[in-house]
């Protein structure tokens, strides 16, 4: 995917200015930066999730495999099938484990071999062994870490290309976090992953590329988010080009 000078407004507030970066296929790209710098906003612009936010307006170019995902003839529902999302707080539906995973498959008419598809998605999310004898149990009865993996299974069930994750581990304990991080490495063999994280060690551990965002005040004193630096994760964390990145990763700021 490619972002070319993406700008996002919420009503009159110009929240993100001129963010340009690339998301490489089958790699994990991390987005880091202080609170309010626009990470979630930019992430949501990658699958038209901001369409669902009142007053949000995205301008600039977002292309997926060379195609403008904001072009008038593009169906946002189709965009979200190819570019799925996992949220910060696990949000299983009040349905059985099976029906949670089958949900998107049914909506998208992918109901041939439904049970196989559900099993594959649960295996892909490293949850199958823990739930295979209890598929009728409510998704809400699982632990937090299991619920997040259930949501990952629900997302990958419809076979997206890109999986967007907004702080997927922030509500998890260290053991569940390690599980989800290991899972990310496995998923990256099949999917392209973009993860927003506040945890810099996590960004350094899991990602190949990192985008560092920051928030600044404009001439009128209005706060806006922007992309400071995008590079190989190894470079961002060892010898960043921008002093602001250096200050952030060394903990002098944010
Ligand atoms: N739904 C919304 N309506 C209005 N303004 C919003 C909305 N979501 C975000 N904003 C504004 O856009 C700016 C960027 O917010 P965003 O949530 O993208 O930041 P973030 O980097 O994800 O922060 P955090 O690390 O706290 O999650 C902020 O000024 C925020 O107030
Ligand atoms: Mg956020």
Automatic annotation (TrEMBL):
The record's listing under SUPFAM superfamilies reads: P-loop containing nucleoside triphosphate hydrolases (SSF52540)
Where is it found, in Gene Ontology cellular component terms?
Answer: membrane
Q: Which PROSITE patterns match?
A: ABC_TRANSPORTER_1, ABC_TRANSPORTER_2
* InterPro entries xref list: AAA+_ATPase, ABC_transporter-like_ATP-bd, ABC_transporter-like_CS, P-loop_NTPase, PstB-like
Keywords noted in UniProt: ATP-binding, Nucleotide-binding, Translocase, Transport
Q: Name one GO biological process term.
A: phosphate ion transmembrane transport
- Indicate what this protein is called per its UniProt record: Phosphate ABC transporter ATP-binding protein
The scientific name of the source species is Natronoglycomyces albus
Organism phylogeny = Bacteria, Bacillati, Actinomycetota, Actinomycetes, Glycomycetales
Which gene codes for it?
Answer: pstB
């Amino acid at each position: 995917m490619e972002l070319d000078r993406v700008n996002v407004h919420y009503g009159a507030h110009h929240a993100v200015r001129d963010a340009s970066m690339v998301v490489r296929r089958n790699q994990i790209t991390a987005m880091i930066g202080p609170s309010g710098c626009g990470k979630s906003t930019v992430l949501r612009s990658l699958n038209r999730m901001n369409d669902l936010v009142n007053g949000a307006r995205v301008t600039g170019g977002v292309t997926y495999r060379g195609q403008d995902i904001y072009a008038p003839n593009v169906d946002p529902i189709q965009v979200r099938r190819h570019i799925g999302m996992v949220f910060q707080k696990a949000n299983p539906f009040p349905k059985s484990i099976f029906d949670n995973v089958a949900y998107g498959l049914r909506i998208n008419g992918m109901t041939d071999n439904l049970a196989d598809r559900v099993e594959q998605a649960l295996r892909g999310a490293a949850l199958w062994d823990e739930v295979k004898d209890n598929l009728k149990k409510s998704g809400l009865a699982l632990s937090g870490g299991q619920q997040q993996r259930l949501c990952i299974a629900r997302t990958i069930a419809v076979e997206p290309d890109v999986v967007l994750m907004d702080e997927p581990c922030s509500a998890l304990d260290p053991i569940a976090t390690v599980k989800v991080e290991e899972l990310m490495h496995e998923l990256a063999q099949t999917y392209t992953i973009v993860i927003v994280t506040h945890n810099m060690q996590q960004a350094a551990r899991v990602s190949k590329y990192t985008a560092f965002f920051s928030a600044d005040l404009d001439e009128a004193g209005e706060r806006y988010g922007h992309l400071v630096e995008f590079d190989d994760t190894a470079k961002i964390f060892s010898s960043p080009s921008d002093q602001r990145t250096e200050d952030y990763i060394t903990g002098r700021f944010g």
